Amino acid sequence: MSDLKKLKKPIEGHLKEFQKVFRKTAKSKIYLLDIITKYILKSKGKQIRPLFVIYSALLFDNVNTSTYRAATLIELMHTATVVHDDVVDDSMQRRGRFSINALWKNKIAVLVGDYLLSRGMLLALENKDYHLLEIVSKAVKDMSEGELLQIEKARKLDISEEIYYEIIRQKTASLLASCFATGAASACVDDDVANKMHRIGELAGMAFQIKDDLFDFQKTSITGKPTGIDIKEKKMTLPLIHLLNNSSSAEKRKMINIVKRHNNNREKVEWLMDRVNNSGGMEYAENKMNQFKDEAISLLREFPENQARNALEELVVYSIERKK
What's the CATH number where 130 sits? Predict the structure, then answer.
């Protein structure tokens, strides 16, 4: 049995209740929309976010119907942003299946994303879950700002380590933070506790994104070479930022020029990837990743030990130590 299956087993009943709420909320009377939402449901991944939400409520021994709505709200918001991202990135596949825009074109994909977002908001409003809606709305705002900040910085490629952390805090960590915070808030904890849970999720999310950035510089089992996708997309990640910070002005100009103007030149991109791998950038990024992970776990351990706390710790470690 995999680690994730072990973590799901104790809360199988709660996950079934969440799935009922999610399916009911996503359902539509419009035939086309209902077909698309069913397709989305079939292609859902590991659904790790509902686990974080449910265990965050269970940490305070109070999983209830509000918790299932919190998990649904998070999952609807995440799914909507993924559908929109595929349109923006012109991605034809998602988890080995055709993306919504590949099958039904961009206009329909954008409208489906809008529909899912609106269903999540209405679910919260209809049940007066204003505190949950506030947490998730802030996450959507942060994710949008993080993406736009990254795009803005990609034009000049003047990303410092501090700006990189701000980008990943908003773009990625805000979602995981909202999982922890909404789960806790659904359990009727006070604001200070919910804010502390938010911070734990944020730190775990920062570590998660750095892990994701490291994959881009690691050799794949298929080609035996790093993918270099981030460089091709002019994304400045921590291993590369570390290399630039420790290079001469001339070397720095050469490397930035590759990212800016020669990011589709395989030979030049591979040369830059080798420089990153041989510069200590990977080790530096791994150390930072572990610092964020350790800080998240340290804060989590300030709560009394129980099954939920141990499960949350395992989930944090699982999401950061994953192999892909």
Answer: 1.10.600.10
| Sequential pLDDT tens for the chain (324 residues) | 468 889 999 999 999 999 999 999 988 889 999 898 888 887 666 789 999 999 999 999 999 999 999 999 999 999 898 888 888 878 887 767 888 888 898 899 999 899 999 999 999 999 999 999 999 999 999 999 998 988 888 777 778 899 999 999 999 999 999 999 999 999 988 999 999 999 999 999 999 999 988 887 875 543 344 566 777 777 888 999 999 888 888 888 888 888 888 878 888 888 888 888 888 889 999 999 999 999 999 999 999 999 999 999 999 999 888 766
Neighbours of 314 (CB within 10 A): 15
* pTM of the predicted structure, to 2 decimals: 0.90
3-state secondary structure 37-70: HHHHHHCCCCCHHHHHHHHHHHCCCCCCHHHHHH
Alpha helices in 127-261 (DSSP H): 130-156, 161-168, 174-186, 191-215, 229-232, 238-245, 249-261
Question: 20 is in which domain, residue-wise?
Answer: 3-320
How many separate domains does the chain show? 1
The candidate with the shortest Cα–Cα distance to 240, out of 225, 227, 219, 255, is 255
- Could you tell me the sign of the dihedral formed by the alpha carbons of 150, 157, 288, 2, in that order? positive
Q: Confirm if 162 and 200 have CB atoms less than 8 A apart.
A: no
Residue (of 51, 52, 65) closest to 15 by Cα position: 51
d(CA 222, CA 228): 14
Nearest CA-CA partner of 180 in 308, 315, 55, 317: 55
Backbone angles phi, psi at 2, to 5 degrees: -70, 160
